[in-house]
Amino acid sequence: MSAKSIALLLLGCLLAPLASAGLDIQHWHTPQGARVYFVANHDLPMIDASVDFAAGSARDSRATAGLANLTRHVMRLGAGPWSEREIEERLADVGAVLGGRFDADRAGFTLRTLSGARESDQAFATLAAVLAAPHFDAGVLRREQARVIAGLREARTRPDQIGARAFQAAIYGDHPYGQPDDGEEDRVAALGRDDLVRFHADHYRAANMVITLMGDLTRERAEALAERLAAGLPPGEAPPDLPPAPPVAATPGERVIPHHASQSHLFMGQPGMMRHDPDFFPLMVGNYVLGGGGFDSRLNEAVRQQRGLAYSVYSFFAPMQAMGPFQIGLQTGRATTREAVDTAYAELLRYLAEGPTEAELTQAKNNLIGGFPLRLDSNRKILEHLAVIGFYRLPLDWLETWSARVDAVTADDIRRAFQARLRPETMARIIVGGQLEPASE
Amino acid sequence: MLTLGLFAWLPAQAELLDRMLDNGMRVIVKTDRRAPVVVSQLWYRAGSMDERYGVTGVAHVLEHMMFKGTRDVPAGEFSRRIAAAGGRENAFTSRDHTVYFQTLQRDRLELALRLEADRMANLLLDADEFAREINVVIEERRLRTEDNPQARLYEALMATAYVTHPYRHPVIGWMDDLQNMRLEDAREWYEQWYAPNNAVLVVAGDVDAGQVYAWARQYFGDIPARPLPVRKPLNEPEQAGAKRVTVRAPAELPLVALAWQAPRLRDPERDDDVHALEILAGVLDGHASARLNQALVRERAIATQVGAGYGGIGRGPGLFIIDATPARGIEVAEVEAALKAEVARLVRDGIGEAELARVKAQVLASQVFQQDSLFSQAMRIGSWVSAGLDHTLQDTRYARLAAVTAEQVRDVAARYLVDDRVTVAVLEPLPLPQGPPARPRSPSGVDHVR
């Protein structure tokens, strides 16, 4: 071991740990107008980065469902001076890992590279070309359309995928969140190169771009790399906000979708929470007690531990730009479908009526606050938080104030927020499979 | 070119404690102060490969029962107390071992050790709890395997590729064995294997290693060692001809997998075949421009997905596996032939230096990247120890990987990926049954409606 590395080791022990009082998040704009969020940490010779655009599936139209996904997918398959083969070889040559991120709100890329100048220069130059100068080669596009469609056909056979799609359509209707992330077969098949070129030009713009950087680099280096990523993009302007989510349906919506599988899959819920929700903390803390916490949640206790009806049972709020879904889910043997669904529903009703006990609330807070350092114990986790803070324009002290805001939640807050938000009697209830009556041979 | 300079950056050997308690329990502590967090993993060297016929799945069933209470810590309390301390916890069972883990703030480790020691010695194994939990496990099998045609193909592949070795059994167990599992089976398993001399505690994080050892001695030190069942070598006979297995199940896409018998790492300084096979897997499928994806998915467009996998670390005999999903309208036979043709081309022509350097660059970068996760650092140590390896030789493995030559890669492909040692498994899609909810068909005869 070299003297230099020993010196670094000793230094490593003296540096502020990753999750001390607060992260030193630095924020600026590139000259092109992209927002940048940066945290330095020199413990390991590596850099994590991500770029995100408001270019998720919610930016698709009905007629082009699947375009946003296909555009991001094909961008890396040939760009700048490099063929699709050369792109991946250039990354592999320096051990870099280029990943992707895609949901209704966000489309983007993640990059992990060694921090040495040779490795990181090559990795960032490659990503910059992918962002600014994708080829959208017609032959590559045809091949990838066939692969995406094969995936869609496969998804149509799987009970979890069938249910997720039906649930999404049921609670969002014509809202942009109602279309599946990867589109529909016939729409994807009809897309042409021009569609991708236009979607890219409209959405992959500096003003619609969030860059996050984390790891072994200086502020100067971070500024240079961020500028390189944004340099090839037109400035453009920020996209319009998404429309508000539709109100909860007025009529109850239980729907059983027949399927041959040995288990039934339940998807029950409604539009639930925004990223900038005034009730973000009561709903998040309250959901821990209902079905978010794991083995100490009410749903787990009632469905799995008391009755042995399911391996997995949960509830969640997915905070999104518009109202993201609230969902209760479980899978159970076909013969116990009714019992499991009724049990979960009864727990929801009871929780809405009672709210959490003081003991349950304390348990939730102890876990959430006591577990806070676990959320920031690696570069990758910190990068993910930075990306959310940046994309959704959360305050820079979001993480610093998080624990205090959890602690401030009362049982009354939770009961009020849940009662105001959730409409169990009219929630969508998708059951794939369905109750199996005793066999009549 | 690659140099070994990279190694000097790594704090891998920074602070490492590795000591045995008097009762034979091994304690390994790796200090990493990047975050005020600690990972604790208790490894029992008992996995599904230690099971007998008739009780397959019992290792995993016992894992579930380990959360169902002791005299002092009632059912569910283990999880509740760890959660109240801000921790995350769970467990997993593999073919080689069963591992219980907690991640906590650094100053709450003692709680986890106290609770783990309690359930190592004092598990109740209540009949009512067992009656419910076995149904949870059956639901888990339905979710992961029965309703997943790809998983069923891999289950059939393992059951065919291995003849004598218990790797032929699924970790979760065969459904019939689960339906006939008794509380006594779980108890017998617990009494056989859950002894301190069959356990390794691995702790990684911002802790004082001496303090961790002191706690380990305080809480585990009084649990007496027990004689363990004799472990037989269970060596697979040499395969003397290709084998095939077909699974027909409702599915959209076919899948073909080829598996060859392959060695496992026993001596990191000398087992260069293992290192060369790992590089070979990278040459075939290490990145999107690697050989299989480039040839089958991109250039010929006869497959929508390809993969290659080989794990050199483990207790039992290894397999080198490649698989592919044929594109629509392409026969499985054509894709199988194309996979074999890629292997034959590699054996005939060898690999290029740039190709080799590229895979090594990825391997060495991953050595840095994996340091970002405390959990994966602890996993590395535990899996090496479980496989009977000296975990302090992990850097030796990287050095040996960096020294693999193009000719070695060609040579291991020529010697191991041969037709007489292959098992081919094919998923043949059946149309999805249509119609209203009815008695579901049971293609494999493993239905379990009661």
Give the name of the CATH architecture of the largest domain in chain B. 2-Layer Sandwich
At the fold tier of CATH, the topology name of the largest domain in chain B is: Cytochrome Bc1 Complex, Chain A, domain 1
Low-pLDDT stretches of chain A: 1-17
CATH classification class of the largest domain in chain A: Alpha Beta
Strand order, sheet with most strands of chain B: 1-2-6-3-5-4
Largest sheet of chain B, if any? Answer: 6 strands, mixed
| CA-based gyration radius of chain B | 23 Å
Alpha-beta content class of chain A: alpha+beta
Strand order of the largest sheet of chain A: 1-2-6-3-5-4
Shape of chain A: globular
Query: Would you tell me the structural class of the helices and strands of chain B?
Result: alpha+beta
Our estimate of the beta-strand percent of chain B is 15-25%
Unreliable segments of 5+ consecutive residues of chain B: 1-13, 435-450
Plain-language structure description:
The complex is a heterodimer of chains A (441) and B (450). With 441 residues, chain A is α+β, with helices and mostly antiparallel strands. Chain A has two domains: 23-231, Metalloenzyme, LuxS/M16 peptidase-like (Cytochrome Bc1 Complex, Chain A, domain 1, 2-Layer Sandwich), CATH 3.30.830.10; 253-432, 2-Layer Sandwich (Cytochrome Bc1 Complex, Chain A, domain 1). Chain A has 16 helices and eleven strands. Chain A is globular, with a radius of gyration of 24 Å. The model of chain A is unreliable at 1-17 (pLDDT under 50). Chain B folds into two domains: 10-220, 2-Layer Sandwich (Cytochrome Bc1 Complex, Chain A, domain 1), CATH 3.30.830.10; 243-430, Cytochrome Bc1 Complex, Chain A, domain 1 (2-Layer Sandwich). Chain B has 15 helices and eleven strands. In chain B, the strands form two sheets. A six-stranded mixed sheet of chain B has the order 1-2-6-3-5-4, with helices on both faces. Chain B is globular. Mean pLDDT of chain B is 93; it is low at 1-13 and 435-450. Chains A and B meet through α1, α3, β5, α5 and α11 of A and α2, β5, α4, α10 and α12 of B.
